[in-house]
UniProtKB/TrEMBL annotation:
Cross-referenced InterPro entries: DNA_helicase_UvrD-like_C, DNA_helicase_UvrD/REP, P-loop_NTPase
Protease found in the keyword field: no
Pfam families, per the entry: UvrD_C (PF13361)
Protein name (database record): UvrD-like helicase C-terminal domain-containing protein
Keyword terms of this UniProt record: ATP-binding, Helicase, Hydrolase, Nucleotide-binding
Native source species: Peribacillus loiseleuriae
The keyword Hydrolase appears for this protein: yes
Domain UvrD-like helicase C-terminal: 2-88
Molecular function (Gene Ontology), one example: DNA helicase activity
Length: 97
């Protein structure tokens, strides 16, 4: 299956070069079923603390440009990142303990 029905062009555009480096997958280039107008960004932090700092800064930037916290979500893969993000959210006074 090489057509992505869930994500738009920006996400698939970032995913293709990453997937291409997987030596155990069948070579293919993903295509999208629909276009999108939502831009995404790619970050490659060196450790959980750096990732958490980047996430908090992004939240603060979006909040200062008028986006509501209730419209944001943070998805993470590991507990270490989740813990680091939560601690930074508390320090930035974005959430209460």
């Amino acid at each position: 299956m090489d057509i992505n029905y869930r994500s738009g062009g920006f996400v698939v555009g970032l995913a293709n070069p990453i997937i291409r480096h997987n030596t155990r997958q069948i070579p293919k280039t993903l295509k999208v079923n629909h276009s999108d107008n939502q831009e995404v960004s790619l970050s490659r932090p060196l450790h959980a603390e750096q990732e958490a700092e980047w996430i908090i800064q992004d939240i603060l930037d979006k909040q200062s440009s008028g986006h509501a916290l209730r419209d944001m979500a943070i998805l993470y893969r590991t507990h270490a990142i989740g813990r680091a993000v939560f601690d930074k959210l508390v320090l930035a006074d974005i959430v209460d303990r």
